[in-house]
Specification:
alpha+beta; 8 helices; Rossmann fold; OB fold (Dihydrolipoamide Acetyltransferase, E2P); six-stranded mixed beta sheet; single chain; five-stranded antiparallel beta sheet
């Protein structure tokens, strides 16, 4: 299946729709340029209406860009219909054929392509083995669980050996526990096959677990693209920091710049923190992740506990620092001092863990 390793490039893509209420045109996707490397798993992530599904549908050929060009490998594919593109889509609804059994559902695309019968048999059985459905080829789809139906949909997409596999929120109809196990399976299969995968979701944990790179979209444009670690630890805006995981935002004053570090003052408390190149002294927004801070009797930002909730693996705190609400996640709270609502204490954090916007 090495032939399937092709990348995707979007060159200044835009999609314009008309608002049915106002009759005015608006950009669902605006001037988007992206390069998705061959064999990588990339997730389009963002809130409803951000343009992620429209972008995926343009790559698949179900929508046509109004501006720009889409490339699969070195080939421009704007003019190609979906069935002429070397892509396959796994849909949110699975879109299985209810009057066909598992084998015939998986074989459907190969039959349309007039693949010889003996080759269909080999390819279908090999893919069913890959998705761990061997022995179920004779079952009707209504006899399968949601997770098994999702595997059939994945097998049907993989069996035609596309260069790029597209996923449109394929796990959203599954319960929470099954979603976690199925995302692990999707990542395993993608890595085993070596296929380029583009995945749409609004679920941040799903994106983090699956992706080599995450593309965060907002209002039709790319807000940030990078590895899960890059985006989580180095968000480029409050929107990105707030969308990927939980984040606290504090106002701080940077002073005494010293190379890649500076003195940060928050509510009278000073810490030496990492600073980006080109920063100058002044007021900045500070991103503090809930797991990067702890409560202490002294040494930190004075605060008052407004919520203290035991969650098993962690103690969930809300504290007030001045007029700012700060959320904390204190992992493994057993044998630790538990602070109660109304207590006054200090918020301590690792200066290397904060991110200055």
């Amino acid at each position: 299946m090495s032939k399937m390793k092709k990348g995707v490039r979007l060159d200044h893509i835009s999609k314009i729709y008309q608002d049915p209420k106002t009759g005015k045109d608006f950009y669902a996707v605006k001037d988007t340029s992206l390069t998705i490397e061959p064999g990588s798993f990339v997730t389009l992530l963002g809130p409803s209406g951000c343009g992620k599904t429209t972008t995926l549908r343009m790559i698949a050929g179900f929508e046509s860009p109004d501006e720009g060009e889409i490339y699969l490998g070195d080939e421009a594919i704007n003019a190609l219909t979906p069935n002429k593109r070397d892509t396959a889509m796994v849909f949110q609804s699975y879109a299985l054929l209810p009057h066909y059994n598992v084998f015939d559902n998986v074989a459907y695309g190969l039959k349309l392509r007039k693949v010889p019968k003996d080759e269909i048999q080999k390819r279908v059985m090999r893919i069913l083995d890959l998705v761990e459905l061997t022995g179920m080829e004779g079952r009707m789809t209504n006899q399968l669980s949601g997770g098994q139906q999702q595997r059939v949909a994945l097998a049907r997409a993989l069996v035609i050996e596309p260069s790029v596999l597209l996923f449109d929120e394929p796990l959203s109809n599954l319960d929470a526990k099954l979603r976690v196990s199925m995302r692990t399976e999707i990542r395993r299969i993608q890595q085993e096959v070596g296929i380029t995968a583009i995945y749409v979701t609004h679920d941040q944990s799903e994106a983090m677990a699956l992706s080599d790179n995450i593309i965060i979209m907002n209002k039709g444009v790319v807000a940030q693209m990078g590895s899960p670690q890059d985006i989580y630890y180095h968000p480029n805006s409050e929107f990105v920091a707030d969308f990927i995981g939980e984040a606290n935002f504090l106002k701080g004053v940077l002073d005494k710049m010293d190379g890649d570090h500076a003195l940060l003052k928050i509510e009278g408390h000073s810490s030496r923190v990492p600073a980006k190149a080109g920063m100058t002294p002044g007021t900045y927004t500070v991103v503090l992740r809930p797991e990067s801070a702890v409560l202490a009797n002294q040494g930190g930002l004075p605060c008052e506990v407004t919520l203290s909730c035991f969650m098993g693996s962690y103690q969930n705190y809300h504290v007030k620092v001045g007029n700012t609400l700060v959320k904390l996640t204190d992992y493994n709270p057993k044998n630790k001092r538990i602070y109660q609502v109304g207590e006054k204490c200090c918020l301590a954090f690792d200066p290397e863990s904060v991110h200055i916007l």
